[in-house]
Amino acid sequence: MLIAKNLSHSFDYLLFENVNLQINPKDKIAIIGSSGSGKSTLLHILSALLKPQNGIVEYEGKDIYSISEKELIEIRKKEFGIIFQFHYLFNTFTALENLQAAAILAQREVDMKLLERLKIKDVINQNIQTLSGGQQQRVSIARVLTKHPKIIFADEPTGNLDKENANEVIDVLFEYCDENNAALLTVTHDYEIAKRFERVYELKDKRLNIWK
Ligand SMILES: Nc1ncnc2c1ncn2[C@@H]1O[C@H](COP(=O)(O)OP(=O)(O)OP(=O)(O)O)[C@@H](O)[C@H]1O
């Protein structure tokens, strides 16, 4: 589905080199590593947001940084779902309006069962700015799943949540992948959360090594 070959990237210093990774349907992959090791940068490269200085990223056989801008926008819009550390929701809209906007763009419906699973059904008519950080994070996860992506890229998706809610969010993401033949790639600081994933890599000493 997605193959990354020989990626390397630097900003002020070399972040990583010779990174290779393959993502298949239903894969659940976590990337751990210390702060500043380049986890978010790698996630951006894999999710079509940042061209790597070296190496290629292929999605369904096509090098995503060589295809036309139009094709790339279509992949970003329809195939990839990105959960950022910051939610980027429309602050003056209600939670439901945010989800409806995503549903209209993706020609899908808002799934009420999903809102129940994410424990945001009761706050769905509140403005985003009146929700807690954890509730905002769960709305942003619901928004991404409403699109029905083939690959979910998540940057610290449980960062604002307590242990119980964090585990429930991971359950929802895993279920989504199993039911929709989709894949999940998560960046996390949380080793307890990482242990729940089938495959875990650690970004360390400028390399992506298998951790589990
Ligand atoms: N656009 C940018 N321009 C310059 N430097 C950047 C840019 N993006 C990231 N960096 C630098 O690259 C390094 C790695 O950042 P990155 O966010 O990928 O790390 P991380 O492992 O995700 O960190 P954290 O766990 O703290 O979120 C940092 O030193 C950061 O300042």
Overview in brief:
The protein has 212 residues and is α/β, with parallel strands linked by helices. Helices cover 34% and strands 27% of the residues.
CATH homologous superfamily name? P-loop containing nucleotide triphosphate hydrolases
Distance between the termini: 21 Å
How confident overall, as mean pLDDT? Answer: 94
- List the ions, cofactors and other small molecules found in this model: adenosine-5'-triphosphate
The CATH class turns out to be Alpha Beta
Do you know the CATH topology?
A: Rossmann fold
Provide the number of structural domains: 1
Family: Belongs to the ABC transporter superfamily.
Pfam families: ABC_tran (PF00005)
Keywords: ATP-binding, Nucleotide-binding, Transport
InterPro entries: AAA+_ATPase, ABC_transporter-like_ATP-bd, ABC_transporter-like_CS, MacB-like_ATP-bd, P-loop_NTPase
Description of the structure:
- Strands 6-7-8-3-9-10 form a six-stranded mixed β-sheet, sandwiched between helices. Strands 2-1-4-5 form a four-stranded antiparallel β-sheet, covered by helices on one side.
- It is of the alpha/beta class and 212 residues long.
- It has one domain (29-41, 69-210): P-loop containing nucleotide triphosphate hydrolases (Rossmann fold, 3-Layer(aba) Sandwich).
- Helix 3 runs parallel beside helix 5.
- It has helices at 39-46, 69-78, 95-106, 112-117, 133-146, 163-180, 191-194, and strands spanning 2-10, 14-23, 28-33, 54-59, 62-63, 80-83, 151-155, 183-187, 199-204, 207-210.
- The mean pLDDT is 94.
- The chain binds adenosine-5'-triphosphate (ATP).
- Adenosine-5'-triphosphate binds at residues 11, 15, 33, 35-41.
- This is ABC transport system ATP-binding protein.
- InterPro entries: AAA+_ATPase, ABC_transporter-like_ATP-bd, ABC_transporter-like_CS, MacB-like_ATP-bd, P-loop_NTPase.
